[in-house]
Amino acid sequence: MGKSILRSIFRRKQVKKVPYRKREIIKQLKQLHTLLEINEKIVTEQSLSELLDYIVRSAVNLLKADAGTLRLPNEEQNVLVLKSAYGTHRKSGQTDLPINENSTAGLSYLKCRPVSSSNISKEALYPWNGEESKKFSSLLTVPLKARDKNLGILSLYRRRKEKFSSSEIEIAEIFASQTALAITNRTYLDQFHRAAITDELTGFYNRGYFYQRLSEEVHRAERTDLPLSLLVIDFDHLKIINDSYGHLAGDKALKEISKIIGACIRKMDIPARYGGDELVIILPETDSISAFNVAERMRKKVANTLSEGDISFTVSIGIATYPRDATQSQTLFERADKAMYQAKQKGANRVEISTKE
Q1: Whole-Å CA distances, 28 to 34, 171, 221
Q2: Which of 61, 232, 282, 324 is 20 to 30 A distant from 273 in Cα terms?
Q3: Beta carbons of 319 and 353 less than 8 angstroms apart
Q4: How far apart are CA 236 and CA 244, in angstroms?
Q5: DSSP, res 122
Q6: Which residues, at least 6 apart from 120, have a Cβ–Cβ distance to it below 8 Å?
Q7: Buried b / exposed e across 264-290, counting CB within 10 Å, b at 16+?
Q8: How far is it, in rounded angstroms, from Cα 238 to Cα 89?
Q9: Around Cβ 93, how many Cβ atoms within 10 Å?
Q10: Confidence at residue 1, expressed as pLDDT on a 0 to 100 scale
Q11: pLDDT tens digit sequence for 252-311
């Protein structure tokens, strides 16, 4: 669909009389050809962050700019979040801008139209001072519109004091429209993929994805010669809770326990729901002592936080570590699972480290 739109624009520009010199017409035709090539690439399989980085780099090269940024809205916090930057020192996740008319990006987003300036150092709507305002002169900010929705803002910067021409703004709008569709499609694909690998109740990964990641992490630990620990966590006395208060109470407790456990782990750790009342956590680059400390923190927080009537919620945790306890993913899981059952046999609400047989 994107190709047909661009080709129709290409044909219109061939027919329509334009008041530009010959080299300007050639420049526009080259830009449209480049748009076709970019459109081919943005529909290929890649992560959202990679796609956003590619969009910014492509826009900078397409319009002969020196730098670019891309922001997506966080409507709950009413800010535009920097997701990608090229040719500037700004980093993703920093320098959020309020969604209001006090900045060029905010104005462009709210009005859903391009905003340009040839001298940002004297521009009241340009919020940054210091090195950034001295480094660049011209600015073009374009909304990323997909159908009737504005998905974000693309900003392009030039060092020279040369305002973006009307034809360049038109090209930028076509580019922004195409990339907005690509962002929408990538976002939907990410959501479908997340739903396919995520357990609905806990928000952790599901069993199938756990097996895949455990195998990958064991191979990575082998390559890097770093330890890897696995926790198997069992919800103690879940049957008693279900029988006394119903399965909804059991589900609620498991959900709360998952929140507590999730708050105890790093971003690089991989939590999953293995079965009805069993959770597993892959801890990359973690030895058995560090894993024990993490598990103890989880156990104490659960025991001290949750209860239902006269029942205190507790967990039993087993630990196995690569390569100390096993060098294969399946054996590593079996050792951690066995350690967890040993914890339950010793009275539950405790952590056990796998012992060599």
Answers
A1: 10, 8, 52
A2: 324
A3: yes
A4: 14
A5: G
A6: 104, 126, 133, 136, 137, 138, 139, 157
A7: bbeeebbbbbbeebbbbbbbbbbebee
A8: 52
A9: 9
A10: 47
A11: 888 888 999 999 999 899 999 998 889 999 999 999 999 999 999 999 999 887 665 556
Q: Where are the alpha helices (DSSP H) in the chain?
A: 2-15, 22-42, 48-62, 104-111, 131-135, 166-197, 207-224, 238-245, 247-262, 288-305, 329-345
What's the chain's average pLDDT? Answer: 83
DSSP assignment string, 334-350: HHHHHHHHHHHHTTSS-
Amino acid (one-letter) located at 204: F
Number of H helices, E strands in the chain: 11, 13
pLDDT of residue 188: 77
Q: Does 2-196 carry CATH code 3.30.450.40?
A: yes
Q: Domain residue spans in the chain?
A: 2-196, 207-353
Domain 207-353 sits in which CATH superfamily? Answer: Reverse transcriptase/Diguanylate cyclase domain (3.30.70.270)
User: Is residue 351 within 8 Å of residue 305, measured between CB atoms?
Assistant: no
- Count of CB atoms situated within 10 Å of the CB of 12: 9
Q: Are strands 351-353 and 315-322 parallel, antiparallel or unpaired?
A: parallel
Contact call for residues 123 and 139 (beta carbons, < 8 A): yes
Please tell me the distance from the alpha carbon of residue 108 to that of residue 112, in angstroms, as a whole number. Answer: 5
Closest to 178 (Cα-Cα) out of 278, 75, 298, 54: 54
Residue 170 to residue 163: CA distance in whole angstroms: 14
pLDDT at position 15: 46
Residues of the chain with pLDDT under 50: 1, 9, 13, 15, 18, 20, 93
Rounded CA separation 172/140 (Å): 9
The alpha carbon dihedral of 202, 207, 208, 212 has a sign of: positive
pTM above 0.90, yes or no: no
> pLDDT by residue (tens digit) across 94-120?
578 889 888 888 889 999 999 988 877
